[in-house]
Amino acid sequence: MTMASVNRAPRPSSLADVLDVVLDKGIVIDAYVRVALVGIELLTIDARIVIASVDTYLRFAEAVNRLDLQPSEEATGLPGLIERMQEGGAKRKTRGALSGAGEKARDVMQSITGRGDDDEDEDDGDRDNGRRRDRGVPASRRAPSRS
Amino acid sequence: MLLVHGLLREHDRAVLDRVGGSVHPRAVAAAGLAAAVSEAPEHGLTGDDAVAHLDLLVALAADVPVLPLPLGTTAPDDDAVREEVLTPAADRLEQQLAAVAEYVELRLDLAFDTDAVVAEIARGNPEIERLAARSRARGAGLSERMALGEAVAELVADEEAVRTAQWTAELASIAERSAVLAADEQTRRTAYLVRREHLADADAAVARLRAAAEGVADVEYVGPLPVYSFLDDLPVGEQPTPRSRWGW
Fold first, then answer.
1. Full-model pTM
2. What's the pLDDT tens digit per position in B148-192?
3. Which of A78, A117, A139, B229 has CA atoms 20 to 30 A from the CA of B27?
4. Partner residue facing A35 (CB), from B72, B96, B118
5. DSSP secondary structure string, B119-182?
6. Domain boundaries of chain B, sorted by first residue
7. In the prediction, which pLDDT does A51 show?
8. How far off is chain A from B244, nearest CA to CA, in Å?
9. CATH topology of domain B104-114+157-225
10. Selection from B50, B5, B66 nearest residue A18 by Cα
11. Which candidate from B69, B137, B152 shows the least CB-CB separation from A64?
């Protein structure tokens, strides 16, 4: 088997990484003078800037909130989103990430269910909107018992 | 003014006539050693000089043992190279050249897709879910978001360390030495001291590593470099059976 395609590079691809290799590493000779490094010190400092913890933490927090976690159950895409929409207004208000598709889903659900009771409608297939629900999003209401 | 790039055994000095690149090195020899030198530019060193310096050392290391010197190491003239660089430390330098003779250095940069890592570790984690809910609650502010981010950052670092150790285990077992050179919230840089004859094995291990990391981390694989990261911890004498001293 040839491994010529393993993509081993002879040296790092970026200048910052080249400098990381050569700038301070190697055999140090006692009697030596370092020649001026034009522009390199500044460049190296730029390359070595450590992202401040604050920025990192906020970025991770944002990444988590984009996930729209829900406690103790996994998000399951649009069906799961729709289920949560039915759970109550107060909980929904705390979920700032819901927008766009989520709002659209809520509108769809309101147009489909459009009522406060939600216990008997599985056997109530001859209601006006029952047919639309069967065609559109029945899985969302049955998801808990399936999973 | 001379730039001193690296040190060789004197009997390997002919290699300097064969290497290409923009440095155009020549040898200054004494005490069984040779220094690869070139004229220092008057204007100081630029990024291009840094690349040319490394390219020269990589080309030398491909053929012969070489001890790299830090970029910008200078000497006033040939005599200074002989008398202040080569001769005073000849014994130590000879030992180090002998120690690196069988080895090259390989490096791996793993650049993680942190969004993918965050998604994996955050889902189903009750503490993260609790902190996430708190950060989104009415009246929550910067401190709640920071608490969430800090907790996530810790888990991300742990996860990336575990993944790195798993993915690089085979390469580490091929290497004589391994080291973590740098680690931040996104990138992990590791180095490996590998016997020249095991380079193909290392390549095969990295090919498998790439497949395992696909979608989670980009892999940059560099080498063979002169030995940079293990100069203070070189194997002493002949090692009949290469063994890993992996550990982080």
1. 0.69
2. 988 898 898 889 999 999 999 999 999 999 999 988 878 899 999
3. B229
4. B72
5. HHHHTT-HHHHHHHHHHHSTT--HHHHHHHHHHHHHHHHHHHHHHHHHHHHHHHHHSSEEEEEE
6. 2-101, 104-114+157-225
7. 43
8. 22
9. Alpha-Beta Plaits (3.30.70)
10. B50
11. B152
